[in-house]
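> example.struct
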């Protein structure tokens, strides 16, 4: 098998890249190790930055998002039983975010790819990327029980944190920057209308809580829990009671309960792999970097990477210059580190470390007071939350 761009992984990064290349007249093959149903139902991100929503629209994949997604013009910060709303459009010259689940983004892109795009092979597991530093890199993969080879001009590793493509970058050329956190998120999906019409980020002495939503009738809620917590150790009643405690306000706000349809625990990690390119292998999305979900940046960073790659390859096709491909890693990493900083700031602002001292508790509250009382501080948050420009 042969193609111009071999794409490993059909998460948001790989699927959007295939679409952008198709629109630019560049052929690709996508290899995905899991089956279609699994990819379409894996619960993950839900917040699309303004720039991400614009890219999906421009790629012809925004129709259902515009119909069913929920435009959000702000978030609420909750601390000390008080509420403070951050108004995005007022602080950023009109920018907002879109609540539209990653599962739905993937469904839309898969449908388009199967209808109009190049091959998308499910249950096709990449085993290794070979010859990344030559002009003809190859992906060895297994599909329907048989091993095969995909010969490419370029390989883009969009295979997430646990994929194989990162391993093709020699260790002596690699630098890894990493931080793990001593807590995780217990996330639930519940069949109940969201109790608030915007996301609520709550800092509480018992730990962080987040109220989010998937649709007007489905709530997504998270609780900070100790690292290594088993989701099944929490009964539904215990989860609701703890959420109520952490969201409590002085003005009598109420959290509506409903049947919990799914619960799981997500670990928290910050991770960056440098460089994001080795020869003709390019890394994109979670294959190269992870952020804790507090800033809602992971999916958006994946989109930024593949937009940068698609532009660079299109530029090379049109002008013959590899200049933008050569600077891919630096261009992506500038944005990645801004998202790492923001995600770290939001995480340390809102979560309570198990060994937090009273001094650190007071500092957290002082940082939140500053956000609630300073337009400059709020603007910084609003600009980062609604998204950094795509290079
Ligand atoms: C619980 C949770 C909540 C999150 N919330 C948010 C949020 O609110 N906002 C946000 O922006 N981000 C959020 N994220 C992060 C976001 O989901 C990820 O950053 C995003 O999925 C990255 O997309 P990706 O395409 O790079 O990687 P992935 O979505 O991980 O896709 C990688 C794909 O590669 C496939 N693959 C792996 N290995 C191979 C192989 N060897 N061969 C072939 N295929 C392979 C995988 O099956 C997968 O389909 C959240 C993540 C989690 C876990």
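> example.seq
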């Amino acid at each position: 098998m042969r193609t111009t761009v071999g794409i490993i992984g059909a998460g948001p990064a790989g699927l959007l890249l295939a679409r952008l290349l198709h629109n630019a007249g560049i052929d690709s093959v996508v290899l995905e190790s899991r089956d279609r149903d699994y990819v379409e139902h894996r619960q993950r991100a839900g917040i699309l930055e303004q720039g991400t929503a614009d890219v999906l629209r421009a790629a012809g994949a925004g129709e259902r998002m515009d119909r069913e997604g929920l435009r959000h013009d702000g978030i609420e910060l909750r601390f000390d039983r008080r509420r403070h709303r951050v108004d995005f459009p007022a602080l950023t010259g009109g920018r907002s975010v879109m609540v539209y689940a990653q599962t739905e983004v993937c469904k839309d892109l898969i449908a388009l790819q199967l209808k109009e795009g190049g091959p998308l092979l499910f249950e096709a597991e990449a085993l290794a990327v070979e010859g990344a530093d030559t002009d003809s890199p190859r992906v060895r993969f297994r599909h329907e029980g048989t091993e095969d080879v995909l010969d490419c001009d370029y390989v883009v590793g969009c295979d997430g944190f646990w994929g194989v493509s990162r391993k093709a970058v020699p260790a002596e050329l690699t630098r890894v920057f990493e931080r793990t956190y001593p807590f995780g998120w217990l996330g639930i999906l519940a069949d109940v209308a969201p109790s608030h019409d915007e996301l609520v980020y709550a800092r509480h002495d018992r730990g962080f809580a987040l109220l989010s939503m998937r649709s007007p009738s489905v709530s997504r809620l998270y609780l900070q829990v100790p690292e290594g917590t088993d989701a099944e150790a929490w009964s539904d009643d215990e989860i609701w009671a703890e959420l109520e405690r952490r969201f409590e306000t002085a003005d009598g706000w109420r959290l509506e309960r409903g049947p919990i349809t799914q619960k799981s625990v997500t670990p928290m990690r910050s991770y960056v792999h440098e460089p994001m390119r080795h020869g003709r292998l390019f890394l994109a999305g979670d294959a190269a970097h992870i952020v804790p979900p507090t800033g809602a940046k992971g999916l958006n960073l994946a989109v930024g990477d593949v937009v940068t790659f698609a532009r660079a390859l299109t530029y090379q096709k049109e002008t013959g210059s590899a200049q933008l491909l050569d600077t891919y890693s630096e261009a992506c990493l500038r944005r990645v580190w801004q998202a790492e900083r923001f995600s770290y700031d939001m995480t340390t602002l809102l979560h309570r470390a198990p060994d937090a001292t009273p001094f650190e508790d007071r500092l957290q509250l002082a940082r939140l007071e500053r956000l609630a009382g300073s337009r400059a501080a709020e603007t910084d948050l609003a600009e980062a939350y609604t998204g950094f420009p795509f290079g």
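> remarks
The chain has a mean pLDDT of 96.
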